[in-house]
Design brief:
Creatine Kinase, Chain A, domain 2, about 425 residues, 17 helices, 12 strands, alpha+beta, two-stranded antiparallel ribbon
């Protein structure tokens, strides 16, 4: 999230959404993003700017990233801009016999056979990751996410923001899970992408940690507890130091001190930008309340142990909104007085809380799609419902074709 000046808390928002490029008929992945970019720019470039939105490559050739071209002053309006760019990308992909597909994991991709690394600019970094970790797995080659970058201007703001994000992160899959399928079969996990993601650096565990970040709240402590251990642990595998940078960090929320931002990375991509931005707007509003200490003090936010939060995350990764939270202190941090509730019930509660706080603020652009998610369940749940227990390739193609249509038309998916 580049910027001309250092922004303070909630003064800007960086949004990144990743989509698969698939064959228009078969829906098999198509590794053609470099040729797509060359057809537009005349060369194999890594970024294309389209006004307030930019397109970028990712690790693999079948994924394209759409992002705000610098921080947006507010989240309202981002979904409409992304919708227009989805339309433009689909228009340019059509002559190649391709289209964009949403959701966080391709349901039948075989990454060991089909993965193709981006071979152009920035390829030394991708090649280094592949050399160290072998990217021919779902945790590298078959995952699409939505990232939210939130700025901070100094150490004090970083500490407050990091504390709030750590506290909220465990229940984010309850809203955003969209990956119930891998290898043509249901996995039993609503957020299979995140399950695979947390294991993709298992050779060097310090890189991902527990996905929930450690309880560190200053730049110095972060450097000592997060950066230094992972740089030290990877040194023997990366003698040229290609990977010794902030981007190596694979936690579910990472400090990007070079950008003065924290990047939230645990969100599965949804069926259309309206859904992604509705989730981001709700998250941003809840985080603002936590940062302002309206519900619980900063010291209490900081006190939650990583292992405790990681246990809640494990539950929401598996069962999304149906995960049962049995930690009364955690629930109380969000002014929820129930001793036990599902993650979906907690989000219903938070949705009502932030709408009350917003008062007369116009929130139609995010409230309507959020009501669909809260009423119908996570996208993973809706996909599972639409499949109706039929996991034949024909049925999967039918459901995922509908999801492609939802992305192209900017509408919600309801089973």
């Amino acid at each position: 999230m580049s910027r001309a000046r250092t922004l303070g808390l909630f003064q800007g928002y960086g949004v990144e959404c990743e989509y698969m490029v698939v064959d228009r008929e078969s829906l098999d992945i198509r590794p053609v993003v470099d040729e797509l970019f060359r057809s537009i720019a005349g060369d194999y470039v890594s970024d294309i700017e389209c006004g307030q939105v930019a397109w970028s490559n990712e690790l693999v050739l079948h994924v394209v990233e759409m992002k705000t071209n610098g921080p947006a002053p507010e989240l309202a309006g981002v979904a409409a801009r992304f919708d227009r760019n989805v339309g433009e990308l689909n228009r340019r992909l059509a002559p190649m016999g391709c289209r964009l597909m949403p959701t966080a994991a391709h349901p039948w991709m075989n990454p060991s056979r089909e993965m193709r690394l981006w071979p152009h600019e920035y390829s030394p970094v991708y090649e280094a990751f592949n050399r160290v970790f072998d990217c021919r797995g779902h945790g590298w080659a078959n995952l699409q996410s939505c990232h939210l970058n939130l700025p901070f201007s100094n150490d004090e703001e970083f500490g407050r923001l990091h504390a709030a994000i750590r506290l909220l992160l465990p229940i984010l899959p309850a809203l955003a899970a969209s990956s119930p399928m891998l290898d043509g079969h249901p996995t039993g996990w609503m957020d299979t992408r995140l399950r695979e993601y947390r294991n993709n650096c298992r050779r060097i565990p310090s890189i991902a940690g527990a996905i929930v970040p450690e309880a560190v709240f200053t730049r110095r402590a972060y450097r000592e507890k997060v950066f230094q251990p992972m740089y030290r642990d990877i040194a023997s595998c990366d003698p040229d130091g290609v990977l010794q940078d902030e981007f190596l960090n694979a936690r579910g929320a990472i400090a990007r001190f070079q950008r003065h931002a924290i990047e939230i990375r645990v969100l599965d991509i949804q069926e259309c930008p309206r859904a992604d931005l509705a989730i981001l707007q709700l998250i941003a509003r809840v985080l603002r309340e936590l940062v302002l200490q309206r519900w619980v003090g900063l010291d209490r936010q900081k006190s939650f142990e990583t292992k405790r939060l990681a246990g809640i995350l494990e539950a929401t990764m598996k069962d999304a909104e149906s995960a049962v939270i049995v930690d009364p202190e955690y629930l109380q941090a969000f002014q929820c007085e129930m001793p036990v509730c599902t993650a979906g019930e907690l989000w219903q509660h938070l949705f009502q809380l932030v709408r009350i706080t917003a008062g007369n603020e116009n929130h139609d652009d995010w409230a309507a799609p959020m009501k669909v998610i809260l009423r119908e369940g996570s996208l993973a749940r809706r996909i599972a419902r639409a499949l109706k227990g039929d996991y034949s390739r024909e049925r999967q193609k039918e459901v995922y074709s509908r999801l492609c249509d939802c992305l192209a038309e900017g509408r919600m998916f309801v089973a």
